[in-house]
Amino acid sequence: MPTDAVTLPPIAILGAGSMGGAILQGLVRSGIATGGVTVTNRTPGKAAALADLEGVTSVALEDRPNANAEAAASARIVLVGVKPAMVPDLLREIAPHLASGTIVVSLAAGVPIATFESILGSDVAVLRSMPNTPAVVRAAVTGLAAGAGASTDDVAVTRALFETVGTVIEVPESQIDALSTISGSGPAYFFLLVEEFTKAAVGKGFAEAEARVMAEQTFIGAAALLQASDTDPAELRRRVTSPKGTTERAIAVLQSARLDEVFAAATDAALVRAKELAAGE
Question: Pyrroline-5-carboxylate reductase dimerisation domain: from which residue to which, for each copy (predicted)?
């Protein structure tokens, strides 16, 4: 995560739920949010859980109903982390308070940049992001799409922000939904494979605890090997697959199930649903 020598201006995270909270944790650990971070949540309990983080001002809307507007007014970068249906009302609330040149970044799935720009006007830069849940362990893949008013510098500083929780891929907005079917939903596909691998181990007589350790650590270890290697995953697979061996027989079964078609169909279905959600269906 190449954030060396980068410092970030004042940041507001409006709606620091699971994803906003994960990004907040990454910012705090990185030490580059030198301008401070203000976060808002609805309840005092949620606000209190973040109040002790260094450099963080955590505010409950139940205590300060104008907290979103106040946080947005004092920030150079504003992350919008509320639920998609709440986005338009929030934008109308903060629009009069945003300083010219503020960067507003969407964390809300399915809400297009055009919605932000139509409400906020041309004096602010808008970017749309699509992080995934490994942000919690600073291993996210975040898709980042820039609106027409976002400069190269705006994109760079926003990229640095998201690099505190993982890797960033810059894409045109037209590819954000497709990206969400791979990296956004991808952790669920991985967890499903671990589930099924665990069941297979149980079916072969192993206790549940043993089966989980074998399945989980095998996938974790394989991922670590892939990360540490410059070798293509197909080649790594071939190295495990000895000619006429047990793995070759297992791979033949998996390939006969046409996993290529299954994954294509699964991600196609996710893309259809993403477009339905964007259309409000």
Answer: 173-277
